[in-house]
């Protein structure tokens, strides 16, 4: 079983060295743990960490899944609250920001963490970008829920096996890749039902990937329509069906999130942040950020620093 206390001590050491940043959480298991995938219960996690640690805003540099089997709470992901209840599965990618809810003493479920070797393994490298492209929040029902929980429990059992670490790592990597594939299938089925057809869902997935690659380069819907080889109107319908909002609003939200990450995670000046995000003038960036975040960039940065330090 993973010794989460070692994981927490490493995170605190990192935060002390980076006083101006959000706490960086590296994948650094205890020396006695030789595997690249760790699986442990939420109850064990809750008993090993302090409320002060949970209150800290954290940025993870590895893939992490959090499954809630019982209890309810509000988990913060990328500065937005996410309501969690039995059946909720959260999937965080490297670079995302999170903060736990300290109001609940009865968490139960699972945490799965995997080191950077997972995404670079030759068995998944050819299509890793597509395989890892899953929503941050899932709410699992019925048979899908049973299979996902059974998969996590099986991985936990395999982390406890005696045997060669390389063989066990290979097994765990395959099991985790299969779990990601299942989550993609679940998400696509839900999207097809919600969007009324596969074409809209596929176009939105293409749009979302293009946004992730190019958000700092272009903020224009027309440019993304050209990348997708469709009209702005067609792209707008696909985005509206998938998100309930316009393509322009989606771009604004994603750009605001990227700005928040830079403001909270770095000490870059406002002008430098504006330049990195493709704004020709810092004043235009400040106006944009104020509209989306309802506060000025400097105010957000000070509030993020307060959240990091805790009460």
Task: Describe, in plain words, how this protein is organized in 3D.
The chain is α+β, with helices and mostly antiparallel strands and 311 residues long. It has helices at residues 4-17, 42-48, 51-55, 117-120, 122-125, 128-131, 142-159, 165-195, 198-214, 221-228, 232-243, 247-265, 270-276, 282-293, 297-309; strands at 23-25, 37-41, 58-60, 63-70, 73-77, 80-84, 88-92, 97-99, 108-114, 137-139. It folds into two domains: 4-195, Regulatory protein AraC (Jelly Rolls, Sandwich), CATH 2.60.120.280; 198-309, Orthogonal Bundle (Arc Repressor Mutant, subunit A). It has 15 helices and ten strands. The strands form two sheets. The protein has a five-stranded mixed sheet. Strands 2-9-4-7-10 form a five-stranded antiparallel sheet. Helix 9 crosses helix 10, helix 12 (247-265) crosses helix 14 and helix 13 crosses helix 14.
Q: SSE layout and pairings?
A:
Elements: H1 4-17, E1 23-25, E2 37-41, H2 42-48, H3 51-55, E3 58-60, E4 63-70, E5 73-77, E6 80-84, E7 88-92, E8 97-99, E9 108-114, H4 117-120, H5 122-125, H6 128-131, E10 137-139, H7 142-159, H8 165-195, H9 198-214, H10 221-228, H11 232-243, H12 247-265, H13 270-276, H14 282-293, H15 297-309
Parallel strand pairs: 1-3
Antiparallel strand pairs: 2-9, 3-8, 4-7, 4-9, 5-6, 5-8, 7-10
Helix pairs in contact: 7-8, 8-9, 9-10, 9-11, 12-14, 12-15, 13-14
């Amino acid at each position: 079983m993973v010794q989460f206390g070692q994981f927490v001590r490493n995170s605190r050491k990192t935060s002390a060295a980076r006083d101006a940043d959000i706490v960086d959480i590296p994948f650094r298991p205890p020396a006695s743990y030789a595997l690249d995938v760790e699986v442990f219960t939420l109850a064990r996690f809750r008993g090993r960490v302090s409320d002060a640690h949970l209150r800290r805003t954290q940025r993870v540099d590895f893939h992490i899944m959090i499954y809630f089997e019982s209890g309810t709470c509000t988990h913060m992901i990328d500065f937005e609250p996410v309501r969690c209840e039995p059946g909720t599965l959260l999937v965080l990618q490297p670079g995302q920001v999170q903060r736990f809810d300290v109001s609940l003493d009865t968490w139960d479920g699972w945490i799965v963490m995997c080191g950077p070797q997972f995404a670079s393994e030759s068995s998944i490298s050819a299509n890793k970008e597509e395989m890892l492209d899953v929503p941050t929040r899932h709410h699992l029902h019925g048979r899908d829920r049973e299979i996902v929980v059974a998969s996590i429990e099986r991985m936990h059992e395999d982390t406890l096996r005696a045997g060669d670490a390389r063989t066990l790592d290979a097994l765990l990597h395959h099991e985790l890749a299969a779990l990601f594939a299942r989550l993609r299938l679940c998400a696509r089925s839900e999207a097809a039902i919600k969007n009324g057809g596969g074409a809209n869902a596929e176009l939105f997935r293409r749009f979302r990937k293009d946004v992730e690659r190019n958000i700092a380069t272009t903020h224009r819907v027309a440019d993304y329509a050209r990348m997708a080889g469709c009209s702005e109107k067609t792209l707008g319908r696909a985005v509206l069906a998938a998100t309930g909002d316009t393509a322009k609003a989606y771009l604004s939200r994603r750009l605001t999130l990227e700005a928040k990450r830079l403001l909270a995670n770095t000490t870059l000046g406002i002008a430098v942040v504006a330049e990195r995000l493709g704004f020709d003038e810092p004043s235009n960036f400040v106006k944009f950020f104020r509209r989306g975040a309802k506060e000025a960039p400097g105010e957000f940065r000070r509030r993020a620093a307060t959240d990091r330090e805790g009460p």
